[in-house]
Amino acid sequence: MKPSAPSTPSATSEAVPARGAAALAASRAQQTLADPRWAEVQGRQAAADGRFVYAVRSTGIFCRPSCSSRLAKPENVQFFDTAAQAQAAGYRACKRCQPEAAAKPGHAALMAQLCDWIATAEDEPSLAELAERAGMSPFHLQRVFKAAVGVSPKAYAKAQRRQRLQTALGDAQEAPRVIDAIFDAGFASTAQLYRDSQAVLGMTPRQYRTGGAAQQIRFGVAECSLGPILVAATTQGICAILLGDDADALVQDLQQRFPKAQLAGGDAAFERWMAQVIGFVDEPTRGLALPLDVRGTAFQQQVWQALRLIPVGSTVSYSELARKLGMPQASRAVAGACAANAIAVAIPCHRVVRNDGGLSGYRWGVDRKRALLQHEAELAPQAPRVARHG
Fold first, then answer.
1. At what angle do helices 127-134 and 107-120 cross, to 10 degrees?
2. Deepest of 40, 156, 268, 359, by most Cβ within 10 A of its Cβ?
């Protein structure tokens, strides 16, 4: 619907003679196409929701980047940092994607209540049940929940089941049998749990209860350009790349992670893996074509996946990374996930820096972080954002 003048943004002091309209449209289109936010709108990227909104001059409506409505012409698009700015400029919120919804008061408290319900419910609530309790449509709830919590309701419920299962398996008195722990954690069947056990626990439930017993982990310690390096792998892939100053300390670290696993030296195949890892540390631009056995919460895995998308030679700040994930207020949680990463370099948490570009903590030492970033900057001098080392 075309808004009536003069109350809409399309009827402004920018009015120009007809002969200049084409030139103005071309100029606006060029500005839009040059703006990196336009690519996110074209891709309807949900991760961009909350970072900005875009308005359409021809309709007088503003939307989220992920809105599924018909894509506007570039010359009609205008970007705003917040929904309030778009409304102040005279635009109306889209009824389909409700771009102002996440900013409404009370949503944070409501999402916290839903999280408590999911965490304590005997059976996992469906999206429809959650939406009914929240007084929203399922589509709207999915967006608001993800914006507030960082993951979808289903992913949050899965993480809660995992946490309950880990607790139950760790308490032999409360759930003396593995099957009791499985059902107490909320899994509908043993088949469901065992089918997903690698993703949920990183091993079978019985192996988890016994501290990784019967699980064999191959490992090796060598020297690389950063000093001693330990590489460890399960049958699923690389589960640890540890850096340090003392080889014995690295082995102790691995033992603490898998206290009852069978640690074994590497065979010929593992030695080739280890050589690839060491070569990757020295030359990260070549990539690492090896499977990773990544274990963590749903949020941690989301952060670690985002880390792997940061190009060699580039850095982002913790707050930037949080915004990319659609959680602008979660910079501290992002920093915590970076600190929990046990697969150095392959999951490049060293590419995250402070807002001023300075180096912050690194579990394997700030000096190593500085050396990694300086080396990567030399390998990729044309990278869009090279790390600063204040």
1. 140
2. 156
The identity of residue 309, as a single letter, is L
Percent helix / strand / coil, the chain, rounded to 5? 50, 10, 40
Between CA 210 and CA 220, with CA 215 as vertex, the angle to 5 degrees is 125
Q: How many CA atoms lie within 13 A of 243 on its CB side?
A: 24
Report the distance separating Cα 76 and Cα 251, nearest Å: 60
Residue 51 in tokens: 């970072």
Measure the CA–CA gap between 155 and 266, rounded to whole angstroms.
35
CA–CA distance, 78 with 10 (Å, rounded to integer)? 11
Q: Which helix (H) or strand (E) holds 76?
A: none
Q: Are 41 and 55 in contact (CB under 8 A)?
A: no
**Burial class (CB within 10 angstroms; exposed 0-12, middle 13-18, buried 19+) of 352:** buried
- Which sequence positions are flagged as catalytic? 63, 349
| Nearest one of 170, 172, 168 to 182, comparing CA atoms | 168
Q: Give residue 83's identity as a one-letter amino acid code.
A: A
From residue 262, give the alpha-carbon distance in Å to each of 156, 219, 231: 32, 10, 15
CB hemisphere CA count around 101 (13 angstroms): 25
**pLDDT by residue, tens only, the chain of 390 residues:** 444 444 444 444 444 455 577 888 888 988 998 888 898 888 777 667 778 899 999 999 999 887 878 889 999 999 998 888 999 899 999 888 788 765 454 566 677 778 878 877 767 788 988 888 888 888 888 888 876 666 788 877 777 666 665 554 444 444 334 334 433 444 443 344 444 444 444 444 455 544 444 568 889 998 888 889 999 998 888 989 999 888 888 988 888 877 777 788 877 888 889 899 998 988 888 888 888 888 777 778 888 888 988 888 889 998 888 888 877 777 788 888 888 888 999 999 999 988 877 787 788 888 999 999 988 888 875 444 433 332
Amino acid, single-letter form, for residue 185: A
Instruction: Tell me how far apart the terminal alpha carbons of the chain are, to the nearest angstrom.
Output: 53
- Closest of 389, 322, 321, 313 to residue 356, by C-alpha: 389
